[in-house]
Design a protein that fits this description.
The protein is mainly beta. Helix content is 15%, strand content 40%.
Length: 674
């Protein structure tokens, strides 16, 4: 990234800005703005998340928000109620209280002497959710948003459920938010009341994972905050951004299809990061691009961005799976609308082990995948926690061996797909609850297999998430499953592989019993949406080099470390995927504060015993200076039996070594069609 030390406008920074709420609670923010903003008011750009602007996101914020300020905006990073140095309690994600506070924040900003009254919101992940959710409430000040790595549907496309299947990332994030909501404020900012504020957070505690598991269907709990319930509620300009390795990319295409107002999309070769920090594909000049968006909708500059293609997409090629360092090549192209007005579908028919160009005689194929069917699958959303660990997929040949695989012949020319691949197949199952995991892979001439896209389905939800029903064992029925959206160019000489399994552990919680699925070929088919007939615009040199403001001066007193190991106990027939992280010790000289977080995570299961599945999370977090330390230990564990989930959690808090709080939870939650 190129560091910019000079900007068109000199800027100043205001730390620990206090924003009063109508109920007396005070939220804390950090503000960057042009020096003369009071004399010449400017539009404001708001990022609203609970990840501690004081220290947690300070290094990333320093590279982004001053950049906006130097180009004529007031950039403000607000900590949600109950997080960082903001007063109050944070109970769970995306609650009505959070949204009500946001409306008051925007009104407060509008009335500040440095604000022109025109406001935008930006955010990645939680902040991207917030931007969409606030846009749906139509505050008059909000003219445009940039939502990055977020979703319009909290049930189908969030970290909790996918295809009606429970993602183990729900447990990982459950441990993450368990820590976020219980961390202390900084006494140097809030003064002597810091201990009372911390006590309030600790004593008003809860375990969000318990709430999430009590809502196993797409009910009102998940509908709240899902803007897909009423796309027409959003009338401000929306720029939706994401990456092909991120977990939330499908939402971008639904937003482009269903929103009616000004909208734009960017899908690049990245995971869960802002594009100017892009990885695994190349970073881009996203901040320059964002300035054009803000200029058009917050300053009414006729810069032409609204006349450009609606979608800018990276056509991937030569993806190489690697747990720590995946690589992908490709190029940019533009689309005027979504979905394309004309598009050709290529149909492949499933035979014994091949994808054929014509249907063949029906053959029943039985499948019962091992309980460890996705040890090479990586995390559902790599790096959503910001770490540098081995969170991506590895060579898929190990997982392919646990699946029914169907391959094309060697491709005699390059073949591009764009959209959602769909599989339609008749099956019969011997259990009332079952799942399917379906992957589309690129197989090189040397045999290496890389997952290009995938889909999950809880077969109890085969008729929709609103009407789950148990499977009648032995009864034949049709399954139609759309995989996640993708743009990919399979190269000449490669093969396309379709892989189907009945488990996807450790990414997905297994069904209660080992199911055997009988798949009937003949009418079974895979439909691939191609770029044939699609009018695309070549976008050479679409983006400038990635830029950012100067780094925040910090001192690394101990480096971060990460380890991931898979241990197999031959006697117990038990597999343990262990993932340890240590963020190291970072010292922030400007606030004289050090931080450290660690994690010890285990995904455990025994051969052929789906109810032995166990996820254990052990997390620590500390902030300290001189002779003072405030720290927490969060433990979270999910286990199950055939008809229930079991959640055990423990929270401990320490003030300079003394335990000031300890509580345990132990709750049994019935499984409902899961």
């Amino acid at each position: 990234m190129l560091t910019r030390h000079e900007f068109p406008l000199p800027i100043r920074e205001i730390k620990n800005l206090r924003i009063p709420m109508s109920d007396g609670c005070v939220l804390t923010a950090r503000l960057w703005l042009p020096q003369n903003a009071e004399a010449n008011p400017v539009p404001a750009i708001v990022e609203y998340i609970p990840y501690r602007q004081h220290d947690g996101t300070a290094t990333l914020d320093a590279r982004t928000h001053p950049y906006f300020a130097g180009h004529g905006y007031a950039a403000i990073r607000v900590d949600i109620r109950g997080s960082g140095n903001s007063e109050g309690v944070l109970h769970d994600e995306y609650l009505k209280q959070e949204q009500d506070d946001a409306l008051e924040i925007l009104a407060w900003i509008e009335n500040q002497p440095w604000c022109s009254g025109s406001i935008g919101m930006i955010g990645i992940s939680w902040g991207g959710f917030a931007a969409l959710q606030i846009a749906a409430l139509r505050p008059p000040q909000l003219k445009a948003i940039i939502t990055v790595c977020s979703t319009d549907d909290r049930y189908t496309d969030d970290v909790h459920w996918m295809g009606g299947c429970l993602l183990t990332s729900s447990v990982s994030w459950g441990a993450g938010i368990f820590g976020v909501k219980h961390r202390p404020p900084d006494p140097s900012v809030v003064g002597d009341k810091w201990h009372d504020m911390w006590r309030e957070r600790l004593e008003s505690n809860s375990v969000p994972l318990i709430s999430w598991l009590k809502h196993q269907q797409r009910d009102e709990f998940w509908q709240h905050g899902s803007v897909c319930e009423d796309y027409d509620a959003i009338d401000c300009a929306v720029y939706a951004v994401g990456g092909w390795t991120d977990g939330y990319t499908d939402a971008i295409f639904r937003l482009m299809e269903n929103l009616k107002g000004p909208r734009r999309a960017l899908v690049g070769p990245w995971t869960h990061v802002y594009p100017h920090f892009g990885f695994p594909g190349p970073a881009i000049g996203f901040l320059q691009d964002a300035l054009r968006w803000w200029g058009r909708w917050l300053k009414q500059d006729n810069n032409g961005i609204d006349k450009e293609p609606m979608l800018n997409i990276w056509m991937q090629k030569n993806f190489k799976a690697d747990a720590s360092d995946p690589t992908v090549e490709g190029d940019w192209f533009g689309l005027e609308n979504w979905p394309p007005t004309k598009q050709t579908m290529n149909t492949y028919w499933l035979s014994s082990n091949r994808l054929s160009s014509s249907s063949t005689k029906e053959v029943p194929l039985q499948l019962q995948s091992p309980t460890t069917s996705a040890l090479n699958g990586g995390e559902w959303c790599p790096r959503d926690g910001g770490g540098l660990g081995p969170e991506f997929q590895t060579d898929q040949r190990g997982d392919d061996g646990c699946a029914l695989c169907f391959d094309t012949d060697l491709l005699d020319q390059d073949f591009e797909i764009l959209g959602k691949p769909t599989i339609k197949v008749d099956i019969a199952v011997d259990m009332p609850v079952a799942m399917l995991a379906v992957r589309l892979c690129d197989v090189t001439p040397t045999g290496k297999s890389s997952r290009i896209t995938f889909g999950l389905i809880n077969l109890c939800d085969r008729d929709g998430y609103d009407s789950p029903k148990h499977i009648n064992p032995g009864e034949r029925f049709t399954v139609c499953l759309q995989l996640k959206s993708v743009a990919y160019r399979f190269r000449k000489g490669h093969r396309i592989r379709l892989a189907i399994s009945t488990n996807y552990w450790p990414m997905v919680w297994p069904s209660p019993k080992r199911e055997t699925v009988t798949l009937f070929t003949g009418s079974a088919k895979l439909e691939l949406p191609t770029t044939n007939g699609v009018e695309v615009t070549t976008r050479d040199d679409l983006f400038e080099q990635a830029e950012g403001a100067p780094e925040l001066p910090v001192r690394i007193d101990s480096p971060e470390s990460v380890a991931m190991n898979i241990k197999y106990d031959i006697v117990a027939r038990e597999t343990n995927l262990a993932y340890q992280t240590d963020d190291g010790v970072t010292y922030y000289p400007d606030i004289d504060l050090s931080t450290q977080r660690t994690g010890d995570n285990h995904y455990i299961i025994r051969d052929d015993e789906p109810t032995s599945a166990k996820v254990k999370m052990y997390r620590t977090s500390s902030i300290f200076r001189q002779d003072w330390t405030a720290s927490t230990i969060e433990q979270l564990q999910l286990t199950c039996e055939e008809n229930a989930f079991h959640v055990w959690a423990k929270l401990e808090a320490f003030d300079t070594g003394d335990c000031i709080f300890s509580r345990e939870w132990n709750e049994k939650i019935p499984r409902s069609f899961k």
